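Hello forum,

I keep getting stuck at the same step: I have a sequence, I want structure tokens, and every attempt I make locally crashes halfway through. Rather than fight my setup again tonight, could one of you with a working pipeline run this one for me? It's a single chain of 194 residues.
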Amino acid sequence: MYLISVFGNLLIILAVSSASHLHTPMYFFLSILSFVDICITSTIIPKMLVNIQTQTKIITYTGCISQIYFSTLFAGWDNFLLAVMAYDRFVAICHPLHYTVIMNPRLCGLLALVSWITIVSLFYCTVLEGYLISSATQNSHSSATASVMYTVVTPMLNPFIYSLRNKDIKGALRRSFGMAGTKGTIVLLVKKCP
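Reply #2:
Ran it on my machine without issues. Output:
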């Protein structure tokens, strides 16, 4: 699941960066969302896989604090990017004639920066909340299930939900990898050596 998440999100970033017709606000935010999803999964899953493989549940204090910091940071950034993407779609649907004026490159960069700065400032509030909630009152099994759902399943599904049903993304991936589409299926063209 980790490899599918990383590979799927890397494909989105590749498709958006390689196809000039995808250099629009919606795809700009989608590629940032893919990057953040890679960061979220890469913050937690490698250590989890090591723990599963070695049958230990040990983490250093520094490792724990680093993991909490980056997972909270990227999860918050993920949420704010989704809000910015919703605003982008709102402008596109409700004000289609003014879309290019409203969602200009400067505003897109500003929205991405504001979402980053907001997350950094809100990080400290969420850390305090985490320390104020007693771990003894929480069910560890349900907490573990919720953690896996958010850190593994959601980033893995985002490429499928946001992109692979999108004709523009599929077309950019076909062109990037030399693929030809045949009635909805993808066929890889292979050159035979003489």
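The chain is about 75% helix and 5% strand. If your local run keeps crashing, start a new thread with the error log.
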